[in-house]
Backbone:
């Protein structure tokens, strides 16, 4: 039986039947110094089914596409058994699903490029690092293409193709290590760029770090660059605005709460062209749109998937159901975090600070949505003295309380960072591509460690 | 698979995992999940070149070998090409949780609910059973088959600023949910009062996950990959006293809750002393790093997902101090149960600046309460050179058998 027949078979017994299928190809090539370290080609496929029976979901998956009937049967059994013990039933709300076929919009298909051309590009790129003090330079290029199907018993059938490409460089000199990324939802055309600037940026940064000391820990007024402010809004704000946290009563902010100044308006936006976190339809067949979450400092919505939308009252439907692969359950996740442009230039934000820091380059971070406690690490910081940039420091860790920091925002700029950034976000054992379109932000009185 | 004989040099790992899980949040049972995932990884060599193919289609071993060989022929030559040498034949099945069926998974959610009762609200509880099978085969006729099962539990309880967490993965031990919940409840109870000590330098006890995080730069520098990439702090440290005399680190495949018998290159797992009384003795290696560095292979090949790399079997760190005594001896300081994973630690420089939701103030040997919005800062390489207190009690999880470590660090108040 094919999936259409299985959806029909189980429809009379369930409130909702859903099906996911994925086929993907990936290539990863790693060059270390003068040598090609590895060339890996990967393909993967799989499918899953989820059913809502008497107010309870059951989910099953397999990597063996021949086992569809078995997997549908398991999902049904799990849902039915769970419904016998679950007290708080999920009640389905009505809304419209679509049928659509989305083709990947790329200019050059990396899988049509000869292997030797890709190897030579990588070799030339990695060889262009020329800093005398370099102890190691490693560059990885990877590209993937995915074809996904989402269908359900309520008419939805979304066939979606997507391509992702990225270049990741990692250099070491002295006791310092710098990495630089260029990634997007694009094809091989992503690599047609002047990489000498990209290389210079990394080399200049590692030189600065080798000659800098750690910043003195303390409380500072700071300006954070788009990479860090993107991380701040993603980690500290975005995760607390995912609707499963509301259901689990594990978020420190609530609908209607005034959490920041009127200058702050925040969206989750999966429609940004080429951005690493973009998609046309979410994992549950909902068409992507710009979803407003904070309007003039006030919480107006939470990002939701079907399950949390059904369970939490007062939400507007957003397109935020995402899954790492067909083997994972969809959960509410961010795509691209977007902050509305402010009224200041970056320079004006810096000029407002008498004694503070400009903090740049993100290297990691996390938040506990229940407590609002966050911490993340910046690659480097620059002292601001009387509105002017002075010496640089290596590394700075920013930490604090989400609500306090949101209230302490003193300015938002109108200058954004590169669209070719982004990262992989982990939650509940699932990792998905995310990105940010966020400007420079000024925040007063923040805890800076080293 | 044994019928595949060719002149091509190849090796393959076939992995299958069947899992069942059930979760529960404040509203009760959530979606039960069943997964069945298979994957195959093939590495082929051709005249000092290599190609790697991974796929979900296990019926395609022959095709994958041909594809990997074709890819190898296209790739440039590599010096120190990792050889394929295993001729091992071994088979082991160990199922300790046959009795723990789907019904029992559901019952575990009921059990946790009754243990916690009115004591603390559940944010999430997850119970999972995994049955896995790993097969290693190569062109020399080696065949290793390992099958086992494991149980996993994750728990988060709390409300407002109060939080308690615990997670555990078992392959031999009998599950004891009462003990498991106790750890999370202890943290939750300690959070009842808020404490607001001043910023400054204090003794800090890092427990379990927090200890693993704080030591991650050391583990990073003990990997052969990091040495080959010139990133390790210990490149020239073999037989040198570069760490505290109180610290001994062993990669111990014989630890009770460990499941490593062979590595990804078909080599039998070994117990390797990495640091003895602060003296660096060895790194962990696979075929590639051992050949490149001309050192003995420790048989720690573990992955070919992005590139071939190594990983520890089970890090074992045992000390001589009693944890209760370590706490009692603190006049004023802190105890931290979990910090965020190594996001805010720089493995190359060793610098860390971490906060946590399980960060408690100790005064006169007793835990006073939760410190909200505090950061602990320092440098792992520097701190771990100085005299240390390490607990003799350890928690034996898959991959790590460690307890707690006390170091001096800077504390910054928000």
Residues:
């Amino acid at each position: 039986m094919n999936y259409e027949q299985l959806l029909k078979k189980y429809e009379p017994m369930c409130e909702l039947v859903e099906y996911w299928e994925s086929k993907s190809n990936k290539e990863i090539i790693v060059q270390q110094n003068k040598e090609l370290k590895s060339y890996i080609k990967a393909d993967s496929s799989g499918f899953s089914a989820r059913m809502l029976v008497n107010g309870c979901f059951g989910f099953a998956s397999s990597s063996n596409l021949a086992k569809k009937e078995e997997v549908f049967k398991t999902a049904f059994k799990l849902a039915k058994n769970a419904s016998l013990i679950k007290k708080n039933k999920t009640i389905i709300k009505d809304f419209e699903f679509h049928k659509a076929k989305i083709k990947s919009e790329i200019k050059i298909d990396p899988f049509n490029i000869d292997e030797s051309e890709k190897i030579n590009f990588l070799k030339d790129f990695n060889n262009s690092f020329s800093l005398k003090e370099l102890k190691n330079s490693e560059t990885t290029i990877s590209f993937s293409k995915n074809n996904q199907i989402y269908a359900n018993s309520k008419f939805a059938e979304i066939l979606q193709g997507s391509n992702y490409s990225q270049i990741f460089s990692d250099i070491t000199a002295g006791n310092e290590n710098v990495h630089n990324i260029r990634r997007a939802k694009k094809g091989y055309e992503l690599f047609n760029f002047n990489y000498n600037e990209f290389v210079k940026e990394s080399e200049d940064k590692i030189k600065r770090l080798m000659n800098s000391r750690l910043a003195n820990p303390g409380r500072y007024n700071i300006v954070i660059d788009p990479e860090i402010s993107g991380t701040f809004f993603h980690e500290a704000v975005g995760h607390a605005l995912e609707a499963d946290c509301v259901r689990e009563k594990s978020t420190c902010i609530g609908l209607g709460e005034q959490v920041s100044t009127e200058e702050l308006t925040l969206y989750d936006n999966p429609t940004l062209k080429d951005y690493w976190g973009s998609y046309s339809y979410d994992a549950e067949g909902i068409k992507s749109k710009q979803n407003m979450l904070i309007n003039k400092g006030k919480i107006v919505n939470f990002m939701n998937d079907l399950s949390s939308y059904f369970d939490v009252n007062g939400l507007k439907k957003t397109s935020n159901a995402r899954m790492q692969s067909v083997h994972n359950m969809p959960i509410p996740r961010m795509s691209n975090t977007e902050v509305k442009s402010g009224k200041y230039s970056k320079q004006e934000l810096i000029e407002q600070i008498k004694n503070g820091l400009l903090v740049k380059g993100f290297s990691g971070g996390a938040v506990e949505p229940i407590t609002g406690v966050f911490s993340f690490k910046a690659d480097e910081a620059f002292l601001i003295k009387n509105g002017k940039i002075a010496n640089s420091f290596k590394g700075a860790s920013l930490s604090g309380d989400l609500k306090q920091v949101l209230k302490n925002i003193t300015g938002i700029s109108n200058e954004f960072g590169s669209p070719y950034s982004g990262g992989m976000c982990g939650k509940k054992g699932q990792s998905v591509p995310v990105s940010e379109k966020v400007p420079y932000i000024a925040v007063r009185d923040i805890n800076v460690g080293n | 698979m044994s019928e595949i004989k060719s002149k091509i040099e190849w090796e393959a790992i076939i992995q299958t995992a069947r899992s069942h899980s059930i979760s529960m949040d404040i509203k009760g049972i959530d979606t039960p999940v069943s997964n069945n995932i298979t994957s195959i990884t093939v590495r082929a060599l051709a005249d000092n070149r290599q190609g790697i193919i991974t796929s979900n289609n296990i019926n395609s071993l022959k095709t994958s070998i041909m594809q990997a060989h074709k890819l190898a022929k296209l790739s440039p030559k590599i010096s120190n090409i990792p050889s394929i040498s295993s001729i091992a034949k071994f088979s082991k099945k160990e199922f300790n949780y046959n009795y723990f069926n789907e019904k029992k998974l559901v019952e575990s959610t009921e059990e946790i609910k009754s243990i916690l009762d009115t004591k603390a609200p559940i944010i999430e509880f997850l119970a999972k059973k995994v049955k896995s099978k790993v097969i290693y085969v190569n062109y020399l006729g080696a065949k290793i088959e390992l099958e086992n099962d494991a149980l996993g539990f994750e728990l988060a309880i709390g409300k407002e600023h109060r939080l308690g967490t615990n997670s555990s993965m078992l392959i031999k031990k009998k599950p004891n949910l009462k003990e498991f919940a106790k750890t999370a409840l202890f943290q939750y109870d300690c959070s009842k009062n808020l404490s607001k000590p001043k910023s400054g330098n204090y003794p800090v006890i890092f427990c379990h996950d927090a200890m693993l995080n704080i030591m991650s730069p050391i583990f990073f520098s003990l990997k052969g990959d990091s040495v080959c990439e010139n990133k390790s702090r210990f490149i020239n440290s073999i037989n040198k006293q570069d760490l505290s005399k109180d610290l001994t680190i062993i990669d111990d495949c014989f630890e009770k809750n460990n499941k490593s018998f062979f590595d990804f290159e078909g080599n039998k797992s070994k117990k390797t002393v990495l640091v003895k009384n602060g003296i660096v003795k060895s790194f962990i290696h696979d075929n590639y790093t051992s050949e490149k560095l001309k050192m003995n292979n420790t048989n720690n090949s573990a992955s070919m997902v992005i590139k071939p790399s190594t990983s520890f079997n089970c890090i074992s760190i045992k000390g001589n101090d009693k944890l209760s005594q370590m706490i009692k001896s603190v006049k004023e300081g802190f105890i931290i149960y979990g910090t965020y994973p190594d996001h805010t630690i720089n493995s190359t420089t060793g610098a860390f600046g971490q906060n946590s939701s399980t960060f408690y103030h100790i005064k006169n040997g007793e835990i006073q309460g939760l410190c909200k919005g505090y950061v602990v800062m320092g440098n792992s390489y520097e701190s771990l050179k100085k005299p240390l207190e390490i607990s003799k009690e350890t928690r034996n999880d898959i991959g790590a058998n460690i307890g707690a470590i006390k170091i001096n660090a800077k504390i910054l108040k928000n």
Q: What stands out?
A: The first strand of chain A starts at residue 16 and ends at 32. Residues 213-449 of chain A form one domain. The mean pLDDT of chain A is 93.
